[in-house]
Every structure is written in C-alpha cells, then in structure tokens.
Automatic annotation (TrEMBL):
SUPFAM superfamilies: Periplasmic binding protein-like II. Residues 122-457 form the Ionotropic glutamate receptor C-terminal domain. InterPro entries: Glu/Gly-bd (IPR019594), Ionotropic_Glu_rcpt (IPR015683), Iontro_rcpt_C (IPR001320). This is Glutamate receptor 2.7. It comes from Morus notabilis. It comes from the Eukaryota. It is a multi-pass membrane protein. Coiled coil: none annotated. GO terms for molecular function: ligand-gated monoatomic ion channel activity. It is found in: Membrane. The chain crosses the membrane at residues 244-262, 274-292, 304-322, 480-499.
Length: 606
C-alpha cells in the first residue's frame, strides 16, 4: 500500500477483507467480525528444567475461548453448528479448566503476575554463619553452596513461608561468618543482598533501613542468673516466720502454766519440790508436741485445756512438715539479683550481640568495662562457672533454648522487644507477602509445631516438673485464730479453777476463824494453794496405814498355830481414830507365817 494512502482508505480495505486464515474465516459486517473467532489456550513451558514432565514437549494445550461464551472444554459444539453449545460451556466460563503449569513449576496456585527473582537471578538471602545458639540457624561447614546445607528453626520457618506464597520465589542462601547483625542489615540496605533470614530482632532503628516481615516469634531482653541453693544449717527454722516461733513459744509456756495450776492441787505427779514440779510440767508440755507424754491428768477441766492444746499441736506439726518439705524440694526460681544491684556493685555481665551491648550501655546505663562479650551458649556456662560474669543478658528466643537445657541451675526475668522476623529491602512487596504467609502459619499451628521441634525443653525442664514461686515462711497471719482460741479456753479454765480455789480458801478461813486484809488474803490464798492444798494431795496419795511386822508363828502337831508368849510378835499401836481411817484406806496387812519342821529342818513361809 502506498505511503500516501489515507487512513480512511486503509480502513475501507480492512473492512472489505474476506478470506480464510489460520483462525478461521475473516470478514467484517458493520465494522465487526462477521464470525466470532475461537481461540485455544496453550501453556508454554520450559522443559529444560529436569523437574518438568510434559507429555507434549514445550507446550500443553488447554481450553478454548470464545468471546460470547468464555472458556470451552472442546470444539464439539462447532461441529454441531453451535446448536447445543451451552452444554459444552465450562462450569465457570471465567476460569481455565485445564491445569496450568506456571513458571517455577507452580501447580494449582495462580501467581500474582510478577516475580522479581528468577531461576537465573534468584533471591540473594544472607544467613548468619555463626549464631549464638545453633537451634536457630545451622550451617554445614563443608559445603555451603546448596540450600539443603542450611537448617534450623528460622530456616524451616522460611521454607514453610515459601510454600504459602502465590508465586515461585527462587532463592540462594549465603552464609556470612563473623559478622554483626547490624552489618547484615546494612548489606540488605546497600542491596548487596535481597534479604536476611535468621534470628533477626525487630528494632526501631533497623526499620529505617529494611522492611521487616510479621514477627514469627516473640523477643525481648532476659537476664539469666544462677539459681542460689537454699540449703542452710538453719533450714529447719524457715518454715515458720519469727513471729510464729515467738507466738508458739508463748502459747506453749502459757499452756504449761495453766496445766500446772490445774493439776497441782490434785495430781501427785505435779507436786513435790519446786524443781520437780517445773521439770514435770516442762516435760509434759514439750512431750505433748510429739504426743509422747506419759503423765496422766486427773481434772476434767485440765483435759479441756490439754485437748485444745493437742489440736493446736496437730495443726502446727502438719503445717511445719508441709512447709519444710517444700523448702527442701523446691528451689528458688525467681532471681534475687536485679539490674540496679548489678550496676551499683559493678558486677560483670555477659552478652553476645552488638545490639545487646549497645542496649546495655545506652538504655540500662551499664559501664562498658563491665560488659563481657560471650560468643556462644557453651561459653556462657564457662563464664558462670569461672565467676567471670554474675548475670547474662539474652534475647527471649535464646533464653528459651538456654533454659531448656539448664533450667535446674539458672533462672531469668524478661523485658519484651519487637520479636524475630525476616528483613527485606525497603519497599519490597515480598515483605508484605511474607507477613501474610507468617500469619497463616501462626493460625494453622505450623509455627507452634516448629517451636516444639526446635525449641522443646528437656524432660527435666518440662513445665510440670518445675514451679515458678518461692515457698514462703508461714506467718502469724494464718494462725492467730487458733492461738486466740487456745488462749481463751485456757484462760476460762484458769478462772474457773481460781474461783473454786478461792471458795475453798474462804471456807478454810471461816473454819480457823482467821480475818486478814486484802493483801494478806492474797498471800494467804497463794500459801493455801501451794502448801495446804499440796499437803492434802500428798495425804490423799499416801494415807496412814497400819503395818504388821513379820511374825514368826510356830504350829503344833495338830496343825494349829501356837500363840503362846514364847512366840514374838510385834504390832504397832494405833489410836482408834487412826485405826478406823486405816481400815478404809490401807491395803490389807501382810502376815508372814514361818513353820519350822523339826524332822527335816524345812522352812515353810505363808
């Protein structure tokens, strides 16, 4: 066509076209194609990759497409002159029915339409070659060229996230040895690498240089200190607080006095010399702590006091045993060392990251000379054993791994940070997609499963095998009620006994015709209680008896006793009144009868 042909003439030429082409007959009517074309969708693949397995070489024929009906599974409708074409329309005419193989061998996943990295130019991922705790990133030293040589908690999270993306993302790990994490951030910022995969903490200043994904685990500052052993030579006094011991001793002495006062008038075991009375009373009260007393009480009112005291002893011994058992079996799991004490006493502390050192210096105000760098977890144990550090500052994920192995010897407190995440170049859309995939992994439990796989504590450090609270000494606040009840009952019994004693003393005064002043009455009452009542109890315990001494009585030949004057017999002379009293109180007189047999000189005693 000549160059000077006008556009109008060109349009007329096109509309007047009428020929058979590759896509069918081409002719126009009223400016439109007279026959709607039918297109076939072909999936072109690259079978140079070994993982591809296509039956038809480098392409795969899929559905057909028509402007009026969308995608069709076959062209049988065309042979039927379009009479029943609706029967051949796909169930969803807006989507392909055939299986599409997208770049990267993605199947059953529709890509977003873009993928910055490619097979020839994969995503360059920087990985810290030497981490403090190899549970997070593990790199095979001999060969670092293959992605399969990298493992660990962070690597597994990264691989699971890739499976959740809507597009293929070729990547290549690169391990960087002896490099600070801030330098890894800088390597991404200056586009030396596209991303960092590892135990990277989200910090506010790092957000100015890279794009972080959604955190996949929590992070924070943990102070780890050795657990101090609570063993002591005075461990046995720790179950009770000091006021409990004072109150227990006071109620014991008071009960001891009440028991002596009630039993002294009637019980001979609580009488005698002052030294004997004190010893008996002390032994009775203390042995009752173990329910090992042997003395019997005579007064019913004393039994009330002693019964209440036994109840107090039962409560105290049970509580003491339980508290002492806890102290001996449960270690102190909350540290008694705080940050202020460390700074005030210039104690040495350990850390293993440049960020952590900077945080200790700028935020917590530690002196630089008191901060010791620790390269890995094994060196923390050495530093603690050698006494080079008093405490270690770790991030929460590191602290979990450390305590999972050494929970019996160390404890910790925590301050929260932003968490662990992956870092991408600023403005990278991949970071957003990674965040979405991480949220999906969190919701369906995949991250929890990985935590159990990589961060599982040892059997001795399981939550059920340790506790988090220190056993405290029992205080008077929990027992003052039972002490008050015991003291009240003892006091009431004492007052009742005192009233009865005063009544008896008044009758004694009336019988003797004595009349004393108030002061003399008090002294007289005390003297009556200690002397007269004591003498009465002793008289009741040792009444006057009549004793007949041994008498030698010989028997005659007929077996009758010979009571002539030649046989000696001794009888004590007693008055009539004494004899009458003795009959009621004394045991039967013992008579010893001796029979002498002249024939064989045998002696028989009866």
């Amino acid at each position: 066509m000549a160059s000077n042909t006008s556009s109008k003439e060109m349009l007329e030429k096109i509309l007047s076209a009428d020929f058979e082409g590759l896509s069918g007959k081409v002719s126009f009517e009223e400016g439109k194609l007279l026959h709607n074309p039918i297109f076939q969708v072909v999936n072109v693949v690259d079978n140079k990759e070994k993982e591809l397995d296509q039956k038809k070489g480098i392409y795969n024929e899929l559905d057909f497409w028509m402007p009026e009906y969308g995608f069709l599974e076959s062209l049988d409708a065309k042979k039927g002159k379009m009479e029943n074409i609706s029967d051949f329309i796909s169930k969803n005419s807006q989507e392909l029915v055939g299986s599409v193989l997208w770049p990267g061998n993605l199947k059953n996943r529709t890509p977003r339409g873009w993928a910055m990295p490619s097979i020839t130019k994969p995503l360059r991922v920087a990985v810290p070659g030497g981490t403090q705790f190899d549970k997070f990133v593990t790199v095979v030293e001999l060969n670092r060229l293959s992605n399969e040589d990298y493992d660990g908690f962070c690597i597994q999270i990264f691989k699971k996230v890739l499976k959740r993306l809507d597009y293929d993302l070729p990547y290549q790990f690169s391990a960087l040895d002896v490099i600070a994490y801030d330098e890894l951030i800088e390597a991404v910022y200056n586009k030396t690498y596209d991303a960092v995969v590892g135990d990277m903490t989200i910090l506010a200043d790092r957000l100015n240089y890279v794009e972080f994904t959604q955190p996949y685990t929590e992070s924070g500052l943990s102070m780890v200190v050795p657990i101090k052993s609570g063993e002591s030579a005075w461990m046995f006094v720790k179950p009770f607080a000091w006021e409990m011991w004072v109150a227990t001793l006071a109620i014991l002495v008071y009960t001891m006095f009440i028991v002596w006062f009630l039993e002294h008038p009637t019980n001979p075991e609580f009488s005698g010399s002052l030294k004997k009375q004190i010893g008996t009373t002390l032994w009775f009260t203390f042995s009752s702590l173990f329910f090992a007393h042997k003395e019997r009480v005579h007064s019913n009112i004393t039994r009330v006091v002693v019964g209440m005291w036994f109840f107090v002893v039962f409560i105290l011994t049970a509580s003491y045993t339980a508290s002492l058992s806890s102290l001996l079996t449960v270690k102190q799991l909350e540290p008694d060392i705080d940050i202020e004490w460390l700074k005030r006493t210039d104690q040495k502390v350990g850390c293993g990251d440049s960020f952590m050192r900077r945080y200790l210096e700028t935020v917590l105000d530690f002196k630089p000379e008191n901060i010791i760098d620790v390269p890995d977890e094994h060196h923390y144990l050495e530093r603690f054993r050698e006494g080079n550090i008093t405490a270690a500052f770790l991030e929460v994920p590191y602290e979990k791994v450390f305590l999972n192995k050494h929970c019996k010897d160390y404890t910790t407190t925590t301050q929260r940070f932003g968490g662990l995440a992956f870092a991408f170049q600023k403005g990278s859309p991949i970071a957003r997609d990674f965040s979405k995939a991480i949220l999906q992994l969190s919701e369906d439990g995949n991250i929890t499963s990985l935590e159990k796989q990589w961060l599982t504590p040892s059997n001795e450090c399981l939550p059920n095998s340790i506790t988090t609270n220190e056993t405290e000494s029992l205080s008077l606040k929990s027992f003052w009620g039972i002490y008050l009840l015991s003291g009240a009952i003892s006091t009431i019994c004492f007052l009742l006994s005192l009233a009865r004693l005063q009544k008896n003393y008044r009758h004694h005064q009336q019988a003797n015709g004595a009349n004393h002043t108030t002061e003399n009455k008090m002294l007289g009452l005390a003297r009556y209680f200690y002397n007269d009542v004591t003498n009465t109890s002793q008289e009741r315990a040792s009444p006057t008896t009549t004793t007949t001494s041994s008498s030698n009585i010989s028997f005659s030949a007929n077996g009758m006793p010979n009571l002539d004057g030649s046989i000696s017999s001794t009888w004590e002379f007693v008055s009539t009144s004494d004899a009458t009293e003795s009959l009621g109180t004394s045991p039967p007189a013992e008579i010893e009868i001796t029979t002498l047999n002249n024939d064989n000189d045998d002696i028989t005693q009866v």
